[in-house]
């Protein structure tokens, strides 16, 4: 079904061979579905973005993929393994990493201590190697390694949150609105520099993002989620070119994509 290593091959459609595959995902709270029949895929070395208005079900979808919520229907594969019934911790041990929108760092711990917490499953000897790997990926963290997280800027904290997830060396990273509460300038840096670098390293990146245009500019593929279902599923350039994309977010006729830049 999927590539096992490297950056994946490219199909005739221009997409990477799928590594994370969700098929007909239905999930919610209790027995009440919030997302229904959602299918998506992400290949190694690919950034795929899920966008949609508030209340569309994006957070529920992420929780279903990570295992925080049980599936009411559908399947999830990571590589060739069906992880649909695995617990959240077990999914992480299979190569999935997750950076939540909130509480992605321990504010009273230093940068080094936060990263070490991300490697809690590792053998002691491996932690030093992974620390070096993360700090080579994000040299700014090396300069801040003794800084307490709560004293860092929003962009620095987001970098640290992603770095903490990288300690487990995941093949797939799910990022839930990494630019939330960041200024436009810092948000651009996080997406264009930090997130894009993750895909260049060969990881599959599934991005949930409200800054629609910024996200589509770095992604190769996009899914538009509204009312718990995928309304559009296509190349990000095609989505950016749509003159009526804003109608899916704001209910406004003939609104260009720039109008949903900050939503």
**Silhouette:** globular
Poorly predicted runs: 1-6, 251-263
How many strands appear in the DSSP assignment?
10
* Tally of domains: 2
Explain what the structure shows.
There is one protein chain. The protein is α/β, with parallel strands linked by helices and 263 residues long. Helices cover 34% and strands 25% of the residues. It contains ten helices and ten strands. It has helices at residues 58-66, 88-93, 111-118, 124-137, 139-143, 154-166, 184-200, 212-218, 236-241, 247-250; strands at residues 18-29, 32-43, 47-51, 71-78, 81-82, 96-99, 172-176, 204-208, 221-226, 229-235. The strands form two sheets. It has a six-stranded mixed sheet, with helices on both faces. It has a four-stranded antiparallel sheet with strand order 2-1-4-5, covered by helices on one side. Helix 3 (111-118) runs parallel beside helix 6 (154-166), helix 6 (154-166) packs parallel to helix 7 (184-200) and helix 7 (184-200) packs parallel to helix 8. The two termini are 35 Å apart. 42% of the residues are buried. The model is unreliable at 1-6 and 251-263 (pLDDT under 50).
Task: Put the structure in a nutshell.
The chain has 263 residues and is of the alpha/beta class. The protein has helices at 58-66, 88-93, 111-118, 124-137, 139-143, 154-166, 184-200, 212-218, 236-241, 247-250, and strands spanning 18-29, 32-43, 47-51, 71-78, 81-82, 96-99, 172-176, 204-208, 221-226, 229-235.
Main attributes?
263 residues; alpha/beta; Rossmann fold; 2 domains; 6-stranded mixed β-sheet; 4-stranded antiparallel β-sheet; disordered N terminus
């Amino acid at each position: 079904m999927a590539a096992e290593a490297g950056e994946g091959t490219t199909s005739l459609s221009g997409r990477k061979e799928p590594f994370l595959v969700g098929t007909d995902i239905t999930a919610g709270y209790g027995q009440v579905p919030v997302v229904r029949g959602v299918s998506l895929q992400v290949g190694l070395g690919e950034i795929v973005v899920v966008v949609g208005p508030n209340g569309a079900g994006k957070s529920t979808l992420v929780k279903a993929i990570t295992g925080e919520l049980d599936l009411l229907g559908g399947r999830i594969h990571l590589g060739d393994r069906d992880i649909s019934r695995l617990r959240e911790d077990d999914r992480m041990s299979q190569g999935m990493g997750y950076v939540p929108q909130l509480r992605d760092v321990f504010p009273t711990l230093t940068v080094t201590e936060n990263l070490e917490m991300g490697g809690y499953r590792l053998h002691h000897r491996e932690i030093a190697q992974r620390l070096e790997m993360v700090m080579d990926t994000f040299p700014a963290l090396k300069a801040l390694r003794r800084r307490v997280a709560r004293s860092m800027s929003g962009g620095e904290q987001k970098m640290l949150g992603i770095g903490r997830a990288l300690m487990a060396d995941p093949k797939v990273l799910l990022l839930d609105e990494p630019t939330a509460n960041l200024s436009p300038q810092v948000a651009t840096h996080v997406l264009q520099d930090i997130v894009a670098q993750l895909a260049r390293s060969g990881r599959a990146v599934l991005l949930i993002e409200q800054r629609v245009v910024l996200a589509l500019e770095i992604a190769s593929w996009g899914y538009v989620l509204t009312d718990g279902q995928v309304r559009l599923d296509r190349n990000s350039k095609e989505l950016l070119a749509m003159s009526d994309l804003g109608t899916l977010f704001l209910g406004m006729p003939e609104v260009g994509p720039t109008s949903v830049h900050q939503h």
